[in-house]
Design a protein that fits this description.
2 domains; TrpB-like_PALP_sf; 4-stranded parallel sheet; 43% helix; Rossmann fold; 16 helices; single chain; 394 residues
């Protein structure tokens, strides 16, 4: 058993666990008791892989970015999660969870969403399976993210505005939890990243681990070895990074680099650089590292990319940080935007601004000779065109 994977109590070192109100115990315990048996069943694996292939379009290519490699003096591969159906890695998780919900006999799906990307990925698999879908979304986010709200509605989901507090993700999460407490028998709650009470962080990491499973095979085909010197991914809650790191965790020769969003600068008061600024505490049902005030109030995060705008990281990442297994760095809005434009000009690929944070770190690295680097291109930039246009004045 890897020291970097969840233990039988639901912990990664001191992080993780399930800190939920008593009224949620039955729901969470049902999942804790059932998830491993279901996921490890060969017929589950068969259904999961088949949908990933025929519906999502996997395996996603591992692309040797020649001009980018030339610029930085290393062999740089991009893991093309941007080519997945719906445009990012999030669908890997929602496919896994909808199959799990079916096997648990659940008829109704709920989810929370911030910018709407996870809401869309959830509404998509509910349409695929003909299941009722309710997505909680902050009232302010609903106004800001009209195209994603339209996508969810087209797919038959009900989008419920969260009208309390700051009317954003935190409040949507509270509403979703309230719904789950009131509907414990027929409803499954699909969480969108490697956060939340045990078993969610482990469950989501397992579904996303297809990313590194494919990558290692593809490296063998293209380089003759499954080894990479550096593996880089951006971190919001941490699901694309968890999937990208998964099959490299016990290979200590592989440098695992997690890039957080520094917004206007780590010390600007407007950032989402959790490990640089945060302290240990409990957020959304698990013990981890989060940005908080002296007296434990969660600090509102900021990033130009909606997907990285989260005040914590998942418990496994907190453990990778604390144990030193992972290298945690950050990139500012400006660095990410420049990196996004650079990839577009050199390779003809417009990345999601989240993914551009991972690319931005290449600029700060020095390579000796022929090192192999894999960058997780977590999503495509179509959804970010408005932001690119405003920033660069196109
Ligand atoms: C949501 C999102 C992220 C951030 O979420 P993680 O759970 O940290 O992976 C990163 N990239 C894209 C394209 C996203 O949509």
């Amino acid at each position: 058993m890897s020291q970097y994977q969840v233990d039988s109590r639901g912990y990664y070192g001191p992080f993780g666990g399930a800190y939920v109100p008593e009224m949620l115990y039955p729901n969470v315990e049902e999942l804790q008791n059932e998830y491993q048996n279901i996921i490890q069943d060969p017929s589950f694996r068969e259904d999961f892989i088949k949908l990933l292939k025929d519906y999502v379009g996997r395996p996603s290519p591992l692309y040797l970015a020649n001009r980018l490699s030339e610029k930085y003096g290393a062999r740089i591969f991009l893991k093309r999660e941007d080519l997945n159906h719906t445009g990012a890695h999030k669908i890997n998780n929602t496919i896994g969870q909808i199959l799990l919900a079916e096997r648990l006999g659940k008829k109704r799906i709920i989810a929370e969403t911030g910018a709407g990307q996870h809401g869309v990925a959830t509404a998509t698999v509910c349409a695929l399976k003909g299941l009722e879908c309710v997505v909680y979304m902050g009232e302010i986010d609903i106004e800001r993210q009209a195209p994603n709200v339209a996508r969810m509605k087209m797919m038959g989901a009900t989008v419920v505005p969260a009208t309390s507090g700051s009317k954003t993700l935190k409040d949507a999460t509270n509403e979703a939890l309230r719904d789950w407490i009131n509907n414990p028998v027929d409803t499954h709650y699909i969480i969108g990243s490697v956060v939340g009470p045990h078993p969610y962080p482990d469950m989501v990491a397992r579904f996303q681990s297809i990313i590194s499973e494919e990558t290692r095979k593809q490296l063998v085909e293209q380089t003759g070895s499954s080894h990479a010197d550096h593996v880089i991914a951006c971190v919001g809650g941490g699901s694309n990074a968890a999937g990208m790191f998964y099959h490299f965790l016990d290979d200590e020769a592989v440098n695992l680099i997690a890039v957080e969003a520094a917004g206007h600068g780590v010390n600007s008061g407007e950032s989402a650089a959790t490990t640089a600024l945060g302290r240990e505490g409990v957020l959304h049902g698990s013990r981890s590292i989060l940005m908080q005030t002296e007296d434990g109030q969660v600090i509102e995060p900021y990033s130009i990319s909606a997907g990285l705008d989260y005040p914590g990281i998942g418990p496994q990442h907190a453990w990778l940080f604390k144990s030193g297994r992972g290298t945690f760095v950050s990139a500012t809005d400006d660095e990410a935007m420049q990196a996004g434009l650079l990839l577009t000009k050199l390779e003809g690929i417009i990345p999601a601004i989240e993914s551009a944070h991972a690319l931005a770190h290449l600029e700060k690295m020095t390579f000796k000779g022929d090192e192999t680097v894999v960058v997780c291109l977590s999503g495509r930039g179509d959804k970010d065109l408005d932001n690119y246009m405003k920033y660069f004045g196109f």
